[in-house]
Amino acid sequence: MTQLVWNGLFVGSFYALVALGYSMVYGIIKLLNFAHGDLYMLGAFTGFAVLGAAGGVPSSLSLPLLLGVLLATMAITGLAGVALERVAYRPLRRAPRLSLLITAVGASFALEYGMRAVAGADPRVYPVRLGGTPLEILGARLTPQQLVLIAVAVVFMIGLNLLVTRTREGRAMRAIALDPRTSALMGIDVNAVISRTFFLGSALAGAAGVMAGAYYGKIDFLMGFLIGLKAFTAAVIGGIGNIPGTMLGGLLLGLLESFGTFWLGGEWRDVFAFGVLILFLTVRPTGLLGERVTERV
Amino acid sequence: MTLLDVAELRLSFGGLLAVDGLSLSVAEGEIVSLIGPNGAGKTSVFNCVTGFYRPTAGRITLRGRDLRGLRPSAVAGLGVARTFQNLRLFGELSVLDNVRAGTHLWLRQSVLDALLHTPRYRRSERECTEQAHHWLDFVGLRGDRYGPARALPYGEQRRAEIARALARRPGLLLLDEPAAGLNHGEKAGMVDLIRRIRDLGVAIVLIEHDMGLVMEVSERVVVLNFGREIADGRPEDVRRDPAVIEAYLGGEPDA
Amino acid sequence: MKTGAAGPKVRRRGVDRPPTRVSRLLQNRWAGAAGLLVALLAPFVNATPYALSIMTSAAIFVMLAAGLNIVVGYCGLLDLGYAAFFAVGAYTSGVLATRFDLPLLATVPAVLAVTVLAGIVIGAPTLRLRSDYLAIVTLGFGEIIRITANNLDVTGGPSGVYGIPHLTDGPVSFYYLTVAVVSLAVLGAARLGRSRLGRAWRFVREDEDAAEATGVNTYRVKLAAYIAGAVWGGLAGVLFAAHLSAISPASFTFLQSALVLMAVVLGGMGSVPGVVLGAIVISLLPEVLRDLADYRFFLFGVLLIGFMLVRPQGLWPARSKEALRSDEALRSEEALK
């Protein structure tokens, strides 16, 4: 039982990290960035390449080194996200929604199969593997590495929340989310803020990608597809566009999946998750912490 | 005879009261103007009547039938047509198709008719096209009917939108600022058009900021401020009403 | 498509100019007849089993594109899990035919019923939502169907259903049967597009609120588009099952859905000749560009972005200028005076 909760929270913190980027981008420009999951994949491969370039890794140093790689990867995927927005999304910001969605699907495809062309179709084995002796806490087995990964995820989430609620930058983001035109009139550089939002969201996805690679040990070019869907589900459960809600949604989805797998069997895990998504969208499309929007016309 | 009856209508968004206890009735074939400063809740009243907003409280009846809780399309089916403040034509579709939209509820045509091109399909398509031409003639549209609606000049788009609403053959037409953005000559044409629509037996409720047009065309004027009605009467009485001058015209005698 | 909003650079041919001989030649009726003729004559050019198989697959793909075009092109709803309906059709007919020893034709009524039901089950809860939510939900639903087929015993698990009976005696006759069915499906989709319902779909695509205000029940109309798309996809699934005689979950991945979408976007959303052309291009391209196999999907992704940026109306756009019928020509002359 405690084990299930623990597993759920662990997977959920990954979901939350990826979902945050989804949610931030949606919150600010109302775009579902289908390619977001693929930035996670890009992060995993970038980390892979950086680690490879760094050469052999003595296992005693693996954790600090990994943190360094993490930051480098975040910078790279963040920039990739900015480039994606600049090239594919910005020119279409005023175009019909359908065009933008199709562009996002195209971007996702281009990233996935571009990576396949570069890195090959077979899964790659991560040069760093976080092993370690499991500890016994409250009847659940967990490794110190899991604890570290969760701690890193929590630090990122708290940092992001502070950024959005306490800083000038965060205020600009919230202003644009409410009304981009007025924000521009008030002297906010809308394009710059949107770029920075993409940077942050993509960097978090990239971080999650490296962490997943180091934890699970294997990466492949399609790894972002499923997690993108899951992250969207998490964002919807919590309330898309709402940052604390999204974190909650991620953890909740992790828990739901953990218990769902226990009851239904692992092969039904994804079906269960998407079933939850459809249920939520039907019953409470604004999510747990999202606000109800009545405005029409 | 009363066509539309709105009683004690209230609409709030969160804490903000957009409409605060408005009562309004419109008789068959009457032209009523709804005026008031920006943000007075005029368009919100339209949105409540046409089913786009669900009122917080109050009654809305059309010929005695309750309109609350109906989908906008169902309200349209009962004979209420509207235009929008910022023109909502189907821009990429032909002007003719836009007006055909108005006939949607009248066409008797099944999917099977369409797949097999039965005589009934041909007949209903011909009828629908004729209707569309008829209403475009009625509003006096001169532009290209076969090209996309977005290609029409602005004033013509206003007319096309009215033609679309008329093709619904409504008993009540709600016009949301039909003269906004029109030049002087076009406004005169609009006055004429509104009168001709009334002569068809259609009641009209008009939201308009152009006081000249309102005074010229309305039989009755209702003034809203902060979601409340502050005056209701003949144009010449309303323009002399001290409360209206105070709240809306801001003291100017002839705004 | 509100192409006008995509940028001032987008010029639309054939809107501002009088019809030329070429554009008249490209009018749907003649194009359709010419396309059908090419399809009918193709086996006389090359009738190797391989070529026939490729051509049959391409024809089935055309039917999928015509069906998805109803949902995406006419109605403007992005469906990213269209392969689900394809799968539902293929599995329903495959399972029924193999379990109960039925001829494939006898399963068609069941396929129709099941696909309509699937359309309602997916559409009913989700069509009330914003269109972008719908896209993801359909994506999730596509995965649900595929994983379910993968997990259940009745669908044969990962190895799928095999030994599905053929519809005809040989590949040539099956090719002609497929062409006939697909032609009818394309014609049907085109006719629906020109009907009262088809207009309502476009009203919804252009402006849902305005459509609702003119009396179009947008929810019902969207559901109708969804169901029509489901039926087209399901029937294409039957042809697919008959063609390969074996089906497995691997045929119904997101990739398949994305390819159909690509055909629709490439050809021109809402344009029947456009999506037929798009489907043929997408399904035959791998045969032409074998060397580029590794880059094919990457290229498709880039093409999707490129088309949306530069030419959102596709290769063969739907006309926004209405064709004059003879009885209207007179009127239009009067109107121009």
TrEMBL record, chain A:
GO cellular component terms given for this protein: plasma membrane
Similarity comment text for this entry: Belongs to the binding-protein-dependent transport system permease family. LivHM subfamily.
BP GO annotations: D-alanine transmembrane transport; L-alanine transport; L-isoleucine import across plasma membrane
Organism lineage string: Bacteria, Bacillati, Actinomycetota, Actinomycetes, Streptosporangiales
Keywords for the protein's UniProt record, in alphabetical order: Amino-acid transport, Cell inner membrane, Cell membrane, Membrane, Transmembrane, Transmembrane helix, Transport
Pfam family for this entry, one: BPD_transp_2
Transmembrane spans: 6-27, 39-57, 63-84, 96-115, 147-164, 193-215, 221-240, 247-265, 271-290
Protein name: Branched-chain amino acid ABC transporter permease
InterPro entries given in the database record: ABC_transp_permease (IPR001851), BCAA_transport_permease (IPR052157)
Subcellular location: Cell membrane
Membrane-related topology note: Multi-pass membrane protein
A GO molecular-function annotation: L-phenylalanine transmembrane transporter activity
Source organism (scientific name): Planobispora longispora
UniProtKB/TrEMBL annotation, chain B:
Entry-linked SUPFAM superfamilies: P-loop containing nucleoside triphosphate hydrolases
Any single Gene Ontology cellular-component annotation: plasma membrane
A Pfam entry, by short name: BCA_ABC_TP_C
CDD domains: ABC_Mj1267_LivG_branched
Tree of life domain: Bacteria
SMART domains for this protein: AAA (SM00382)
Keyword Ion transport: no
UniProt GO BP: D-alanine transmembrane transport; L-alanine transport; L-isoleucine import across plasma membrane; L-valine import across plasma membrane
Protein name: ABC transporter ATP-binding protein
TrEMBL record, chain C:
UniProt cross-references to InterPro entries, sorted A to Z: ABC_transp_permease (IPR001851), LivM-like (IPR043428)
Domain of life: Bacteria
CDD domains: TM_PBP1_LivM_like (cd06581)
Transmembrane spans: 57-90, 102-124, 174-193, 223-246, 258-285, 297-316
GO MF annotation list: branched-chain amino acid transmembrane transporter activity
Gene Ontology cellular component terms for the protein in this record: plasma membrane
Key words, A-Z: Cell membrane, Membrane, Transmembrane, Transmembrane helix
Location(s), subcellular: Cell membrane
Short name of one Pfam family: BPD_transp_2
PANTHER family linked: HIGH-AFFINITY BRANCHED-CHAIN AMINO ACID TRANSPORT PROTEIN BRAE, HIGH-AFFINITY BRANCHED-CHAIN AMINO ACID TRANSPORT SYSTEM PERMEASE
The name this protein goes by in its record: Branched-chain amino acid ABC transporter permease
Biological source species: Planobispora longispora
Phylogenetic classification of the source organism: Bacteria, Bacillati, Actinomycetota, Actinomycetes, Streptosporangiales
